[in-house]
Amino acid sequence: MDGPKQLKVGVWAGDGPPPGYRWNVGILDLAFDEVRRFLTEDQYDHIAAQFKELARENDPSHSETASIDKIEDFYELRDKGGVLGKINVRVFFGLDKGSIIVLGGIKKESEGQTPAGTKITMRRRWRKYKNGDYGRLEQT
Q: What is the pTM of this model?
C-alpha cells in the first residue's frame, strides 16, 4: 500500500538515557488516534512512559514493571488507577525483529476477557503490519 506513512516512531533502540532502549517502539497511526479519543494528555503520557520502560527490558512480553498478557501472537498491556482514574486501559502490541509495535487500545468497559471484536481488529492490524501494509520503522 503506497501513500503516507502510517507508523509513528516512539523510541529508537540505543537512544534514551543510559543504558538506552533495547527495543524500537512503533505506533500505528490508527492506534495513536484510537487512544487519544479516550485518554487525556497526562494519561497518554503515562501509557507512553510504560512503553518506554518496556523498550528497556530484555523481553517486553514478560515485563518486570507492567502487567502484560499474551493474546494469540500479540500482547496487551493492562493498566488502571493512578492518573488513569477509573479508566481500565488495554493497549495491544506485537513484537517484531527488535521492535514493539503498538496496534491499538481500548477503554475496557466490562470485567472478563478482552472483547472478541477487539481481538479480531488487533489480529487484522498485526497481520497487515507484518505484511508491510503500514510501512516499516526506518531509522534515518
A: 0.92
Residue type, 6: Q
**From CA 92, how far away is CA 117, in angstroms rounded?**
13
Contact (Cβ atoms closer than 8 angstroms) between residue 24 and residue 54 = no
Q: Of 70, 114, 64, 63, nearest to 88 (Cα)?
A: 114
Number of neighbours of residue 111 by Cβ within 10 angstroms: 6
Its sign, for the CA torsion 57, 63, 67, 71, is positive
The whole-angstrom separation of Cα 89 and Cα 80 is 6
Q: What are the grid coordinates assigned to 70, written together?
A: 499474551
Q: How many angstroms separate the CA atoms of 59 and 91, rounded?
A: 17
Q: How far apart are CA 47 and CA 107, in angstroms?
A: 13
pLDDT band at 64; cut points 50, 70, 90: confident
Q: Which residues, listed in sequence order, are joined to residue 90 by a DSSP beta bridge? A: 78, 106
